[in-house]
Each structure stands twice: as C-alpha cells, then as structure tokens.
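Before the break, one more example. Copy the sequence into your notebook; we will annotate it together after we see the structure.
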Amino acid sequence: MALTSASTLQNAIDQLMDNLAWEGNITKATDALEAVRAILLLRPNTIGQDGKGTLSRESLLGMEERLQKYVAANNTTANRAYFTRGRAMVV
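Here is what the structure looks like once it is written out:
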C-alpha cells in the first residue's frame, strides 16, 4: 500500500499493523518503513488508546533505523555494483 499526502494517521497505523512481520520480506519492510515515517510526521509525541500500548517517538525512531538498514541491505531493485572499473576508450 502506498501512503500519499491524502493519507491519514490511521492509514499509516493500519499499514504498520499490516506489516509487523517484516523480517525476511523486503516488500513488508518497505511498507513498514513508509508507515513509520508517516507516523513520525503525522502524530503527536505518543499514541495510545484503550490500554493497547503506546508508540513513542523514540520507539518509532528505533524501528525506522532497523527497517532502513534492512531495506538498504536487502533491496534488490537498487542498482548496485560491487566492483566497477573505468577505462578510457581509445578512438
């Protein structure tokens, strides 16, 4: 799911909840990272309701860091070259 500028805080929370088991799945990790970033932008300092727990800015920042590292290490759509060599062309 792609969040947009029209997405609400609840849309971002729902996306995060749908992708909590992101380990080992680059698509879920990317969606969870997007949701965490949206929540950081859209939410107050803490979110909590009905005794279901709270999300603090610190916990979201830690989650964002772990997700970012995972996505960066496992994203196969990125154009990565482990070894490159430039050579002048003789014309």
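Residues 9-74 form one domain. Strands lie at 46-48, 54-56. Try to locate both features in your own notes.
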